[in-house]
Amino acid sequence: LRERARDQGWSVSEYGFALDPAPLEYNQFSVRYVKGEFEVLIYGENYGQNVSCDLVRTGDELGLGFLTPVEERKPRKLRRVIPGQLAQIDDIADRLQRHAADFLRGNTERFDAALAEWKEISKPRPITEERLKERAREQAIATAGHAAKRGDDAEVVQLLEPYASELSPRQRQMLEKARSRMGNAATPKSMVP
Question: pLDDT by residue (tens digit) across 109-150?
Fold first, then answer.
C-alpha cells in the first residue's frame, strides 16, 4: 500500500507536495504528503480491504469524497469483486486530479464550503431536558427488568413507581406483580384468609 501510494505521488507532487517519510502515528499503512499547512493523507482501512484519502488544512480534516460532485457520490452498484487496495489507490489519484486540484493548488473555497457542511452534519446536538428525562425513564425501566428477574420487588416498585402513568402494558404488569408480591410478603400468613 505505502509503495503504491508513494508511486502515485506524482498526482500531488506536481502541486508542490512532498512525501513525509513517517506514516500516521496510529496507522503504519499510510502515506502523508505535505505542503505548508496542507496535507494529503492516504491510508489503509478495514484490515486491508479499503483505502481512504483525507485532505487537511491546518488541522481541519475532510474526506476526499466531500469534494466529489454529488452526482458522482451516488452509491455504485454492488459488485461481487471489490477492487483491491492498489486499484483503490489508483482511483484516489485520479479523483485527486479531477476533484481536488483546486485544493492542491491552495484554493480552499470548495474545501471550506464542504468542511462547513461536514461540521454542521457532525456537530453534537444539544441534549434537551426532555431527552434527559426520557433517558432516565428508559434506564429505570431497564434496571427494573433486571431487578424483576432477580426477584427484587422493592427495587422494581421504587424504579417504576415514578413513571407509572407512562408505562407500557407489559411494564405496568411488572409493577403490579411486584406490588402484589410485596403486599403479600408484608401480611403475616396467619392473617391471610
Answer: 999 999 999 999 998 888 899 999 999 999 999 999 999 999
Residue whose entry in the numeric block shows the C-alpha cell 400468613: 189
Give the lowest-confidence range in 56-60, 62-66, 185-189: 185-189
Are 66 and 38 in contact by the 8 Å Cβ rule? The answer is no
In contact, 31 and 23? CB cutoff 8 Å: yes
- Give the chain's length: 193
Distance from C-alpha of 62 to C-alpha of 67, rounded to nearest angstrom: 9
pTM above 0.85, yes or no: no
Q: Tell me how far apart the terminal alpha carbons of the chain are, to the nearest angstrom.
A: 81
Instruction: Give the residue ranges of DSSP H helices in the chain.
Output: 2-7, 10-13, 70-73, 85-99, 101-105, 109-122, 129-150, 153-160, 169-186
Q: How far is CA 131 from CA 6, 125, 136, in A?
A: 49, 11, 9
Q: Using CA atoms, how far apart are residues 193 and 189, in angstroms rounded to an integer?
A: 9
Could you tell me whether strands 30-35 and 60-63 are parallel, antiparallel, or unpaired per DSSP bridges? unpaired
38, 110, 113, 115 from 107: Cα distances, Å: 11, 8, 12, 14
Residue type, 131: R
Mean pLDDT of 182-187: 66
Assign 68 to helix, strand or coil.
coil
Query: How far apart are the C-alpha atoms of 152 and 136, rounded to whole Å?
Result: 20
Taking each helix axis from N to C end, the angle separating 153-160 and 169-186, rounded to the nearest 10 degrees, works out to 130
